[in-house]
Amino acid sequence: MNSLLSSILLRNERDVVQARQRAREIAGVLGFDNQEQIRLATATSEMARNAFRYARQAKVDFGLSGDGPQKLDVIITDQGPGIPNLEQILEGRYRSKTGMGLGIIGTRRLMDSFDIATSPSATVVRMGKTLPAATPPITPSRAQKIAANLEKRPPESPYEEIERQNRELLKTLQELRARQEELAILNRELEDTNRGVVALYAELDERADYLRRASELKTNFISSISHEFRTPLSSIISLSRMLIDRLDGELTEEQEKQVNFIAKSARTLSELVNDLLDIAKVEAGKVRIRVKTFSVSELFSALKGMLKPLLAENTSLDLVFEDASHLPTLRTDEGKVSQIVRNFISNAIKFTPQGEVRISADLQNDKMIFRVKDTGIGIAPEHHQTIFEEFTQVENPLQALHRGTGLGLPLCRSLARLLGGGVGVESEVGRGSIFFAEIPIVYRGDTSDDQAGGETGAPEFHRPVVMLVDRNPGTFSRLETIFRKSEFQLVYAEESQSAGRWMERNIPVALISEVGPDAAVLRDVVRLLPPEGNGSNRCFVVAVGSPEEQLRAMAIGADLFVSTPLDEHILPELRRLMQRESPRKLLLVEDNEVSMYILRELLDRPWLCLLEARNGQEALDAISREQPDAVILDLIMPGMDGFEVLRKLRSREESRQLPVIVYTSKSLTAQDKIQLESMSAGLILKADVASRMGPEVLLESLSRLGISEPRNA
After folding, report:
1. How much is the pLDDT for 435?
2. Is the confidence at residue 439, as pLDDT, over 70?
3. Percent of the chain's residues with pLDDT above 90
4. How is the beta sheet containing 113-119 ordered, strand by strand?
5. What distance in Å separates the CA atoms of residue 515 and residue 561, rounded to the nearest whole number?
6. In the beta sheet, which residues pair with residue 435?
7. 540 burial via Cβ count (<10 Å: 0-12, 13-18, 19+)
8. How sure is the predictor about 442, in pLDDT bands with cuts at 50, 70 and 90?
9. Contact 583, 606 (CB under 8 A)
10. 524 pLDDT exceeds 80?
11. Please, which of 84, 375, 474, 673 could form a disulfide with 432 given CB 3.0 to 4.6 Å?
């Protein structure tokens, strides 16, 4: 309290009344409105009466405090026995026959600040009310004048105070009655509004149900009609092919032209049917995302072979795929990414009379940006958005030659959104176009909330699972390249909550997490561990960070600490931690990308570490460097063929006994088979693997050579 305005000793009931009067007078002088004056007077009266009734030598002091917003302080002190059960009183749990406690709680609600300090020999009650904003600051000299004026005023009689209280009470009752009437009117208006809102919601629900049924009918209609179209269209295309191939006799020149028109129209209609089916599936939410890990180089290689035939009729156009070997792998739906890029390339080829179509990719902010750039006719800026709308085509000079369905680009947009990305175009008339698709390198649905109740990111695990918890998907992309050829399968969670939901259904053999500045993520990861055991539920925690963070990581509960950056050394550390036997090394020698892909998929086993070579010389170098346990060798390769590789292997002491299985589609002569047998090489025909639809042939052959699953794998 900076300035004392007034002080009243509470010696009798009249002094309690005077304290109430003085509180009102001071509040009026300081600019408080009538309601605040009543609150101050009531609070002061209640506390003064308690002090007079239950204590002795009580006193009420009024003063000002505060340098910023000033405050009126009311301090009531006494020399009484204190207030027992004060904590229960302030919490509203204490009840007494005299009513003590209710007044304290009510007073606290009336004031801006309220505090009681009590002991067996004294009690001090401090109450405060902030001065109105319109009241100018009270200087010390003005406070002295207010105090002097208050001392000059004679106290009012108790009867006058009672009359004043009665008037205040009547006025308050009138205001309450008015408020009740306003509240009743407001309640009636709210009831009317609620009835209107309920009716509106019912109408909206009915409209939504109608739209839902209409959408389902449209989707069912498109799907049914499209499927019905496919059979006769396939028949038309097949019959046209038979006629063009002259299986039933020669055609006149005019007949051949007519049949070609029929075949071309049927193929166009077939493309329309396929696009309609795809769009209908996307709209109906029936498209299944098949997540797998693949590289951009693999994608480009497949597209290159698929789209080369489209250039047969246009020799003045080049199809260029830029090198993508430096880019990280993606974990998303390869088929849908391929469909998006393939549509972009097909459009570019159609509307580029000469020049080149260049396909590239680069990584930006955890998204792979695929670009298809052409030197074609270009698109005006006002059509950049409309071309992604269904059944929309832009008039152009080449439209007579290439009239499409107007569904390809809208389908690309829908598929990209489904994968968490988007598509766009940059183009000017006469200057070519750049169509681009932004695809997250890790499909978020793998560990998102949407799939918490459905399939996991990888529903079948053929290898022990290691989970990476990291906010940067790029870390997963880099590590996955290392793990994909190991006995472990790497899965990804962006944060500990997603990891926790995933671990409700699956238990990994290890969790990898960075320590971080405050180690919060690592602590959350440690809390996810299942109960300690020596069975299949044992899960190890691998902490990643700078060397100075090692002690903190181990103290939190990490089983292993690895310094950043993570590289291929993480694999032997994990094996040592879990006391696992290293996987058997198997070298695949194959120059054909598709055949290599098939081998890689069929032999994806936790106990096999797959190495790859594209030709004979690479194979010999890899054998000297890696010392594999066995080799699967193709015979027909550019440069050094499989027979030459075998001869070189058998001529060296270190590889003379190396198990080799020849995997070929070549029709072998009796001499070829004798030659292979003389060099102790097994033989598997690609046709046998294809006909048996599985890896059994390969695994059985490896097992006969002593390459089989270790006991503790």
Report:
1. 93
2. yes
3. 15
4. 3-10, 58-65, 71-78, 122-130, 113-119
5. 9
6. 372, 425
7. middle
8. confident
9. yes
10. yes
11. 375
CA distance 258 to 308: 27
Yes or no: say if 697 and 688 are a contact pair by the CB < 8 Å rule.
yes
Name which of 23, 266, 17, 265 is nearest 129 in CA terms.
Answer: 23
CB 466 within 8 A of CB 512: yes
Q: Give the global pTM.
A: 0.39
Phi-psi region of 111 (alpha: psi -120 to 50; beta: other; left: phi over 0): beta
CA separation, residue 424 to residues 93, 281, 333, 390, 428 (Å): 66, 22, 20, 15, 14
Tokens of 354: 């000469």
Distances from the Cα of 60 to the Cα of 12, 94, 109, 110, 285, angstroms: 13, 26, 20, 18, 75
Which residues, other chains included, contact 224 with Cβ-Cβ below 8 Å and sequence gap of 6+? Answer: none
Q: What is the mean pLDDT of residues 559-567?
A: 85
| pLDDT for the residue 309 | 65
Instruction: Please tell me the predicted confidence (pLDDT) of residue 310.
Output: 67
Neighbour-count burial for 602-626, b at 16+ CB within 10 Å, e otherwise: ebebbbbbbbbbbbbebbbebbeee
Helical packing angle, 34-54 and 13-29, nearest 10° = 150
Interatomic CA distance for residues 435 and 413, integer angstroms: 11
> Peptide bond before 565: cis, by omega within 30 degrees of 0?
yes
Cβ atoms of 463 and 400 closer than 8 Å? no
595: Cβ contacts below 8 Å, ≥ 6 apart: 634, 686
Q: Confidence class of residue 128 from pLDDT cuts 50, 70 and 90?
A: very high
Containing H/E element for 686? Answer: helix 686-692
Token look-up 């006719």 returns 377
Alpha-carbon dihedral sign for residues 648, 652, 657, 659: negative
Provide the mean pLDDT of the chain: 80
Rounded Cα distance between 689 and 693, Å, is 6
Residues counted in the chain: 713
pLDDT, residue 535, reads 46
Tokens encoding 102: 């209710």
CA distance 79 to 57: 6
Give 636's Cβ-side CA count (13 Å radius): 9
Encode pLDDT of 394-433 as tens digits: 655 554 444 555 667 888 888 888 888 999 999 888 888 9
686 token code pair = 């690609």
DSSP 540: E
State the number of CA atoms in the 13 A half-sphere of 711 facing the CB. Answer: 0
Per-residue pLDDT reduced to its tens digit, 232-278:
676 677 677 768 877 667 888 888 888 887 877 777 777 666 666 66
Degrees, nearest 5: CA angle 528-529-532: 155
Q: How far apart are CA 521 and CA 467, in angstroms?
A: 14
Q: Is the model's pLDDT at 447 over the cut of 50?
A: no
User: Inter-axis angle of helices 570-578 and 473-483, to 10 degrees?
Assistant: 70
From the CA atom positions of the chain, what is the Rg in Å?
A: 43
Count CB neighbours of 31 within 10 A: 14
Q: Which two tokens stand for residue 712?
A: 């503790």
∠ CA 657-661-662, nearest 5°, is 125
The pLDDT of residue 363 is above 60: yes
The answer to whether 402 touches 458, Cβ cutoff 8 Å, is no
- Bridge-based pairing of strands 422-427 and 367-374 is unpaired
Amino acid of residue 310: L
Question: From CA 704, how far away is CA 218, in angstroms rounded?
Answer: 57
**Cα(221)–Cα(216) distance, rounded to whole angstroms?**
8
Say yes or no to pLDDT of 655 above 70: yes
3-state secondary structure of 453: coil
